[in-house]
Amino acid sequence: MATFDVIIIGGGPGGYVSAIRCAQLGLKTACVEGRDTLGGTCLNVGCIPSKALLHATDSLHEAQHNFAKMGLTGAAPTVDWSAMLGYKDDVVGQNTKGIEFLFKKNKVTWLKGWGTIPAPGQVKVGDELHEAKAIVIATGSESASLPGVTVDEKTVVTSTGALTLGAIPKSMVVIGAGVIGLEMGSVYARLGTDVTVIEYLDAITPGMDAEVAKSLQKILARQGLKFVLGAAVQGVETGAKGAKVSYKLRKDDSAHDLTVDTVLVATGRRPYTAGLGLEALGVEMLPRGQVKTDDHFRTNIPGLYAIGDAIPGPMLAHKAEDEGMAVAEIIAGKHGHVNYGVIPGVIYTTPEVASVGKTEEQLKEEGRAYKVGKFPFMGNARAKAVFQGDGFVKILADKATDRILGCHIIGPAAGDLIHEICVAMEFGASAQDVALTCHAHPTFSEAVREAALACGDGAIHA
Ligand code: FAD
């Protein structure tokens, strides 16, 4: 039996980051991971492989649509699907090995296998029992299921199967117009698949600023994605030639069906805590299957903490990482903190979409007086030069104090641009603070400054 200060169960972005920080703070740390590689959902079957495929297919799209406009002529590239998957696997491998290296460098022990918690302060991995003063549950999430739909990861797939399809399908239905559905739908649409997205609600990307969501839908439709909104999927039948998806339109209850090669079920994710033994321990859970914690990530069992997708909040890698660092600080007797008001969300379509803070809809609901500063990328010289004039930056600021309350960007590099506003919000900045900051020309970030200027006396290039 080995004894540690901390054992973290799960080697995803929440768990591995927490383990490294615990070790850096001088705690004897182990991390339990049952997969063959570290990095969790994010590095193995989530953020990283999906971004690799988005990058490869976006490059293809550039070559097909924009190269000739810049005088780059010659045959457009063709797709070698297995080589593209190989590139994706290589990217994943480099990243997961990188975490293994960081564990060695920081002296984190990787306990290989699936962990259970037989009693407070104990973790069992295989036949080995270990003891720890603190245990952190960082076991993440899994794809949510849908009644009437059986996933076989071949014809009817989750995002995991969609990352390794045997061939590029001719047609695909994506069930669910959330982030994962739209990203993977974009990948296949760019590869020539006829993609139809079926969504239960009347708008895509629920929770997103409505103006941005509408704009994204229009742009994606122009790229060839079809949308059936307000539709409840009734079931999926698989046969020799693919799958038949039956759905009903909510407005008139009319029944429809669509037969396609592949169905991607992207209706969200649910926390994964199966097999840990939490019920026997008496760990309090929430109705949606998350572990219940207080604002210091403590469960109701002394010495047992939980973070990441296994607890409430946005199911995002960076949220899990921040909680991983914060819980490490707390366990080490310091002050760990996560500002849930400033967690950016990004969709890696082309154009990218990024947001932080409040949406207009939320501010209206709260009855808060606000002003809007908006600037279109059409007015940004750099964006026009690279054929990315679609989209805009929208900054929401308090009407009286000018303090920034939220920002929503659809346009080039939105996922990077948003961080200027995240930092500004962390410092309690006003829109004028951003507007008065010199921004290099010609950069996409000038659009952020112009939106900030539009919160005051007006943008210059609009
Ligand atoms: P996970 O990453 O799920 O890691 C948990 C780990 O715990 C797993 O490796 C699992 O094997 C292990 N585990 C579970 N139980 C046990 C046990 N009993 N013993 C040992 N090990 C165990 N988020 C973003 O921020 N940006 C993105 O671009 C993005 N893209 C995504 C794309 C896809 C297709 C998917 C599916 C997700 C994406 N996400 C993205 C979400 C992101 O992957 C998750 O929010 C993040 O991985 C959560 O981190 P975590 O550490 O809480 O859990």
From TrEMBL:
Q: What catalytic activity does the UniProt entry give for this protein? A: N(6)-[(R)-dihydrolipoyl]-L-lysyl-[protein] + NAD(+) = N(6)-[(R)-lipoyl]-L-lysyl-[protein] + NADH + H(+)
Quick one: which residues bind NAD(+)?
A: 176-183, 199, 268
Q: Which UniProt keywords apply?
A: Disulfide bond, FAD, Flavoprotein, NAD, Nucleotide-binding, Oxidoreductase, Redox-active center
Q: Example GO biological process term?
A: 2-oxoglutarate metabolic process
Q: What is its EC number?
A: 1.8.1.4
Domain Pyridine nucleotide-disulphide oxidoreductase dimerisation: residue ranges = 343-452
Xref: InterPro entries:
Class-I_Pyr_Nuc-Dis_Oxidored, FAD/NAD-bd_sf, FAD/NAD-binding_dom, FAD/NAD-linked_Rdtase_dimer_sf, Lipoamide_DH, Pyr_nuc-diS_OxRdtase, Pyr_nucl-diS_OxRdtase_dimer, Pyr_OxRdtase_I_AS
- Cofactor binding description: Binds 1 FAD per subunit.
What GO terms fall under cellular component here? cytoplasm
Binding-site list for FAD:
51, 115, 139-141, 309, 315-318
Report the residue ranges that make up the FAD/NAD(P)-binding domain in this protein: 4-324
Q: Does the keyword Flavoprotein apply?
A: yes
Record-annotated active site:
441
Q: Does the keyword Transmembrane helix apply?
A: no
Cofactors: FAD
Disulfide-bond pairs as recorded: 42-47
The record's SUPFAM superfamilies line, in alphabetical order, gives:
FAD/NAD(P)-binding domain, FAD/NAD-linked reductases, dimerisation (C-terminal) domain
A GO molecular function assigned to this protein is: dihydrolipoyl dehydrogenase (NADH) activity
> Anything else the record notes?
The active site is a redox-active disulfide bond.
Q: Which family does it belong to?
A: Belongs to the class-I pyridine nucleotide-disulfide oxidoreductase family.
What's the protein called, per UniProt?
Dihydrolipoyl dehydrogenase
Q: What organism is the protein native to? A: Neotabrizicola shimadae
